Every structure is written in C-alpha cells, then in structure tokens.
Predict the 3D structure of the following.
Amino acid sequence: MLDNFESKPLSGMLKDAGQRLVYKLINPIITLFMRLGITPNMITTIGLLLNVLVAVVLLYGAEYGERGDMSYIGWAGALVLFAGLFDMMDGRLARLGNLSSKFGALYDSALDRYSELFMFMGIVYYLTAHDYFFSSVFAFIAMIGSIMVSYVRARAEGLGVDCGVGLMQRPERILIIGVSAILCGVFSYLIGPFKIDLFGMINFETISIFTFPLAILAIMANQTALKRLTHSKKELERLEVSKKKARQEIKKSNSFDKKKPVSIGIQGR
C-alpha cells in the first residue's frame, strides 16, 4: 500500500480522489437511470447535444453580445462542466448496469470528438468575432492538441500499446475550460471589465481569466500528444524486439529438432 502511494504521482492521486468523489455524487443518478431503462448511448448523445448548446451560446454571444460582456463565456463554461458529468455518467452506467459493448465504446469515443469540436468551434468563433485574434489562435491550437491526444491513444491501443500517459486528458481539459470560463463570467459580473498593462507589452484583461488557461491547455495538450507518441514508439520497439527474440527462439528450437539423431529400434521375433 505504501509502495503504491509513493510511486503514484500527486496528480494521479488527486485525479483518483476527485473521480471517487464525483462517482459518489452521481451513483444515485446512475441507479435512477438503470431503473428508467436509460442506456449509456442515450447519455452520450445528451452530452453531445449539450456541447452543441455550448457552441450555440458562444455563437450567439459572438453575433449579438458586446465585447466586454463575458456572461456568454460564463454560461458556456457552466454547460461545459454539466456536459462533462454526462461524459462520466455514460461509462459509469455501462459498468454498473452491465451494459458495456464494443459499439458503445466506439460510439462514446466518436461523439466525444464531435463534442470537443463543437465546443472549440464556438470558442474560436467567439474570440475571433470579438477581435481576440491571438487568443483564437491558441484556442485553435488547443483544439488540435485535444484531438491528437485522443487520436494517438486510440491508434496506439489499436496496435496493442497501452497509451494512457500524459497529464492533459479529456477530464482535465473539460475542467480547465469549464472552470476558467465560469470564473471569467463571475469576475466580469462582480467587478466589471478591467485591463492591466503588464511590463508595457501584455494586456491582462477580463477575458484573460479564460484565455490564459486556454493557452496553457494548448501547450500542454500538444505536449501530452507528443509524449504519447514517443511512449508508443518505445513500446512498439520493445514489442518488436520481443517478437524477434521469440521468432529466434522458435527457429533455434526447430533447428535443434532437425539435428537431433533419430534412433531406430530393430524389433526381433
């Protein structure tokens, strides 16, 4: 027990503790879903629709909201976190209700990618429409990193490599985007728009409460994707060496059997 505690990173322990807490909160809802006959695929679909709603809120804010009005960002962040709960509940329902299936896993993975793309589409469009150009670039880079994190893992696992390494996985991405967006909306409501000149080069303003974590996510997500790529390369090379050694052992064994002398017994009468 102590060995596991010492070997596990702090981030992993915090994630496990948070996951246990969330599961404890949603388990009664999962039980209700099972009684009502709701399937994991239904929950996954609801999660997608909520992320489409996130995009709609941001698109509306981009077209009709004022530049300093961060309420659309705040409401979108709340919806992102709410949709994230459904992302956790579909897998939990599948396990507890014994409803897991290969197609369900594929369906969940595919709709998760659609959900992220809809969400990032709304974010990029909102930032571009309100002339936050550099922030929109970081949002686009974050979208690329998020998709690549999931793609590299799926491709690696298809080749037989366990590839769950890296920090910026989907739950972390949802948490960063959702919480930072809510904080941006709350601060804007409580103290109004503000702008701070940092070192005469950088302007830290209300939207920065959202876009600064987004920029960090952009860097870390792509770093995670690259880390998974290098991890997969090492694991695939290790598997190739193991297979090569196994083939050599089989070849040696077959060669030994061929060289082994055959004794012929003469049976008398």
Observations:
- Confidence is low (pLDDT under 50) at residues 1-7.
